[in-house]
Amino acid sequence: MNCINHPDRKAFSICQKYNLGYCQECCTCTDPKGYCKYRTQCIAWQICKKSKEHSA
Ligand SMILES: [Zn+2]
């Protein structure tokens, strides 16, 4: 799987809920407030959460 925004890049993480790939640059949760049963193991969510904590 490749990044949804960069088809030439290999996916760094994959959203298991929506089955979307993201490169390291694009790695953000597309649905951070919605219920996601994969959240506890989702890299996209973890990185999204961390980057928000750092910028806020
Ligand atoms: Zn990308």
Descriptors for this entry?
globular; 56 residues; alpha+beta; binds zinc ion; 11% strand
3D structure, described in words:
The protein has one domain. Helices cover 23% and strands 11% of the residues. The protein is built from one helix and two strands. The relative contact order is 0.21. The model has no long low-confidence stretch (mean pLDDT 89). Bound molecules: zinc ion (ZN). Zinc ion is lined by residues 3, 5-6, 9, 23, 25-26. Residues 3, 5-6, 9, 23, 25-26 line the site of zinc ion (ZN).
Ligands and ions found: zinc ion
> What best-fitting shape do the alpha-carbon axes yield?
globular
Q: Helix proportion of residues, in percent?
A: 10-25%
Mean pLDDT across every amino acid position: 89
Largest sheet, described in full? 2 strands, antiparallel
Number of domains: 1
Strand content: 5-15%
Please count the beta strands (DSSP E, at least 2 residues each).
2
CA(first)-CA(last) distance: 31 Å
How large, in whole angstroms, is the Cα Rg?
11 Å
- Based on secondary structure, the structural category is alpha+beta
Sheet with the most strands: spatial strand order: 1-2
Please count the helical segments.
1
Unreliable residue runs = none
Write down the secondary-structure element order: EEH
